[in-house]
UniProtKB/TrEMBL annotation:
The keyword Metal-binding belongs to this UniProt entry's keyword annotation: no
Pathway it works in: Amino-acid biosynthesis; L-proline biosynthesis; L-glutamate 5-semialdehyde from L-ornithine: step 1/1
Gene Ontology MF, one: ornithine aminotransferase activity
GO CC field: cytoplasm
Pfam family, one: Aminotran_3
Cofactor(s) annotated in UniProt: pyridoxal 5'-phosphate
Protein name: Ornithine aminotransferase
Enzyme Commission number(s) of this protein: 2.6.1.13
Species per Swiss-Prot/TrEMBL record: Aphanomyces astaci
Record key words, sorted: Aminotransferase, Pyridoxal phosphate, Transferase
TM region positions: none
GO terms, biological process: L-arginine catabolic process to L-glutamate; L-arginine catabolic process to proline via ornithine; L-proline biosynthetic process
Length: 87
């Protein structure tokens, strides 16, 4: 997930992705008057991916251990689309 998400073409929105194993955090750039981490979580929810905002500008992603590669690829695709939507 970190590799796929870090290659997202949204440098002004996503400051980076960090984590270990399947537990990941997406760091969102805090931009006054622009969509924030909560707005991204709502966008992701509408696209079928559940994520939780933590510490204001960080989104936590914790997929189940039984996730398949195809499902993980779908998650990365949805995350990229969500980041572009709030750009």
């Amino acid at each position: 997930m970190r590799h796929g998400s870090n290659s997202a073409d949204t440098p002004g929105v996503c400051l980076g992705v960090r984590g270990r194993g399947l537990l990941n955090a997406v760091i969102i750039n805090e931009r006054p008057g622009k969509p924030d981490a909560w707005d991204l979580c709502l966008t992701l929810r509408d696209k079928g991916l559940l994520a939780k905002p933590t510490h204001g500008n960080i989104i936590r992603l914790a997929p189940p251990l039984c996730i398949t590669k195809e499902q993980m690829d779908d998650c990365v695709s949805i995350l990229k689309d969500g980041l572009k939507a709030i750009e």
